Amino acid sequence: MPKVIISCAVTGSIHTPSMSPYLPVTPQQIADEAVAAAEAGAAIVHLHARDPDTGRPSPLPEHYALYLPQVRDRCGAIVNITTGGGLGMTMDERLAAALWARPELASMNMGSFNFNISGAAGRVEQFRYDWERPYLERTTDFIMSNTFAQIEGAMRRVGDQGTRFEYECYDVGHLYNLAHFVDRGVVKPPFFVQAIFGILGAIGPRPEHLLHMRDTAVRLFGNDLVLSVLAAGRHQMPMVTMGAILGGNVRVGLEDSLYLGRGELARSNADQVARIRRILTELSLDIATPDEARAILQTKGTGDLGF
């Protein structure tokens, strides 16, 4: 079996500061958490930015600039910048950081869908910031927009600078959307597909769904496929472990789950990376280094970054 690439999504744009005291929100916290995750075994760190004063997700390149050079200088992990941004951002806002940073990898959502995280608001007794509750509750009437025109425009603008993509697929139809762009020659192999389970409005976190997503991806992309799996919340560790057993790669991190185990908040991203690394090692699976991941994904390396 090939070596397993561990990705770590360090902060994201779903969880808000009041949900966990361990969620990194300041630039220094994000930098420290990314570096620690890499030291624990993550070959890729998937990164968002937040407003340093409020912890709200931010699209501004100047907020990314507060921590990205540290990550570059302090660890060798592949930097993967979001183009999903935060809820309610325009496509131009969502692309701004990736266009400025010219990273080795950028995420690319492969379809529009209902994206409902409103239930999280009911589990927080008191919010630290005024923006948090409405940010969550508005998602009962929210569509994450990724039309064919938006996707193609983003692929061309970001891809023209040598950045490769983590194709985020929240449902089976998103795999077919990617296949459409492959057939038209808009994107080139290998195809790093992130199969995502457990977001309300998308495919559920069931083992049979993972098997179906995997089989469909293999049929569509064959030997050009590099499959990875992430799952939200309590489904994180079981689903990504199953994905690895099936020959895939894994993603963990506080963007996807705030917990390390039942009722136990993860105190850091590195805790989650260390746990999945231990599980994979005990399954006799080898872990890819950042440079091995670069070779697998055929990224451009660190010589042409914007930060």
Automatic annotation (TrEMBL):
Q: Does the keyword Zinc apply?
A: yes
List the signal peptide residues: none
**Database matches in Gene3D superfamilies:** Aldolase class I
Xref: InterPro entries:
Aldolase_TIM, BKACE
Enumerate the UniProt keywords alphabetically.
Metal-binding, Transferase, Zinc
User: What cofactor is this protein dependent on?
Assistant: Zn(2+)
Q: Which PANTHER family match?
A: 3-KETO-5-AMINOHEXANOATE CLEAVAGE ENZYME, 3-KETO-5-AMINOHEXANOATE CLEAVAGE ENZYME-RELATED
Entry protein name = 3-keto-5-aminohexanoate cleavage protein
Which taxonomic lineage is given here? Bacteria, Pseudomonadati, Pseudomonadota, Alphaproteobacteria, Rhodobacterales
